[in-house]
Amino acid sequence: MHGHLTDLSHGLGELRNRVYDERLSETLEEIVPYPVRFAPSGRPARSAVLYDCDGRAANDLLTQKRSMEKEARTGTLAGAVLDADALILTIDASAAATQVEDDFREFLRFLRHLELYRSRQHTVGGLPVFLVLTKCDLLARDTPTRSAWHARIEDRQQDVARRFKQFLAAERGGEGGLLSFGSIHLEVRATAVRQPALVDAAPQPREPHGVAELFHHAFVEAITFRDRRVRSHKRLLWTVGGAGSFLVAMAIAGAIFFLNPSRPVEPTLADRLEHLKAAEGPTAATRLGSGLDRRLQAWLEIQSHPAFPELSENLQEVVRERLDEGQAYVQFRDDVAATPPPASARSLAELGQIEARLRKLMPPAPYQAEWAATEAAVERDRLLKEISGLRDAAAHLTQFNFALKNHATSLLQVTELTPEWDQQVRELETAEMSPPFPRTDPARGPAYDFGDVVLAQTDWQRSRGQLLQLRDVATALGMVGDPDEARAPLALRAPPADANIAELAARRWQNLKTRYPDYARWSLATFPDAIRPELERRLRRSIDQSNRDGQRLILERLNAINTTGKEDSADWPRIGEYLLAPPLKDWRELTAFLAKLADPAVADPVQTTADFLRRTSFDLEVTKLRLRIPDTLSDAPVRPNGDLVLDHRKNGVAPVRVSLRQVGEPERDRQTLIYTFTAAASQTLNYVPGDGFFAELPVRKGDQDLKLTWAASRTLSYQFERLLREPRLHAANQSNVDGPLAEGVIVTVSEGKFPIVPAMVPIVSLAKK
Which pLDDT does position 247 carry in this prediction? Predict the structure, then answer.
């Protein structure tokens, strides 16, 4: 509060505790005083009294069910109001528009009556009146952040202030004179007794919003008003004193006139009528303008005067015409003032309802032409023009957003990402910055909140987000823009022979997080089918290079821990632990991100590789497999001619052979025949890294007896991989290393258990230990 507040009765402290302990009860006394002493920073302390009141008593004053003047005595609400240096009127910030308008009407009647009383009492002008929005914590619904909540409060505050001033202007015939002699000074504030839970802020159930600021400002304004009133009173005393001498002289002159009195000339009722007509001005705009309510009262007094029937018929008709016209205009004026402002509409339908209401508010037929220049008629025409402008503004904004969205959609449907495409995306971003008019435009800005405009803007923002994400992914993969390491951290290429793989991956990973902060939300599934294959091909290149980088790291580490020149199966678990070491953290995360971007369901490739290498045994169970032999394998068809045999060998133990026999007829798949082989009985082979393993199948090519042998693997520690790699085709009496590679021959284990050696395991050239 920028000062010190002393709660003299401790009543405010108790009231605060009841609020936050949910023990707040209704005020049943007509008024409850809270005496305080407030010392603003750097200024003398001042005594003051805060008054709370019974809501029913306040409502009676607002609706004029109780007369303030008749009940203005000490200890009453009316007396406190009429003697106040500042007033606070509260309104629920979350109330419906109809409720707010009803509150406005009650406030206006009350303030008009209060101002009339103050004018008659010659009270100094500028009484501070605060229109306070309460329960602003309820405006936090659907607002995730503190800044969004504050923005909504500000918008609501400005909206209520604008609408209330429009009501006030209609009542006063314009906004001028708010600080004139005997008038009020209105200010809108926003408060909440507690601060809500938000994404970026924890709830503060005992921390108010705007309350201290409200009362600090109210105290300052009340002090200023009180000081002005005291100074005015002092000037009045000096004026009265100075006038005393003048009154003595006037008394002497009065005595002379008393001794020789003259008969005063009283104005007739007709004279009063003519004087009133002369004061109206020459046009309906002046006749029905400022001061109309006072003039109508004067016309009523003339009509109710006992001498009214003695006036001529023409003069009586003038009075009746003035009363009929004035009352009709007041009704028309009030109806126009009660019409919701077009800026309060949130859709074209609501705007149409306001327009239909205004078009029904036509001046009565006898007055239509004459009232054209009156304030109410001008305001009605202005509102209709504002509605037309808002409708045009909404159409322009909707078309603007549709055009942006359609352009974005066309850019999303391309099949190739080129520099020209990238330039068009940049131009679209520039076009977005040039709407038909800014949101701050006082006349057309409210159209931004129309439902049709919001829907079009939402569609555009959705397409915009998808397009910019596509541009970011493509740039990061080096498909558009400058393919340097900073802008294209996912465009992996073969590193130099002396490069440090871990450091290079760490730079790329940090560049990705810095330049593309939304990278975690990237997904190829959000992009159209037309462009997705090109993205997948480029991503696959980076993933393959990532696997090669991993193979290089594994080989470098393997050579560092094994200097014997012979492969040792015991080294692989140590390699698995090395892959999970802290120095390789950024490389692991970059590798995992690439894999997840290609397939969100895939497991972490480095973790999978490490887990595989740390295993000490594998269970192999092949009960059914499918063998694919392409027609292009040889110049003559190659067909199975016996059982496919798996050979598992351990040191010092007799070999275990599992035979699988062909069943059924082969299936044709384009230029390939697919054969199915099944084992006679289920048999599990326990494979320990370093065991021997190969497979062979006799085949016939024309009249030649040949053999397919699977005997090639990347390492000697995981020889079971041979079954899933391409075999060699050779003569039965020929070594398999002498036969050609059987390109396109693929074995798939369709039933059973058969582990797959991760792609990151390199080809090891060490001999078997």
Answer: 45
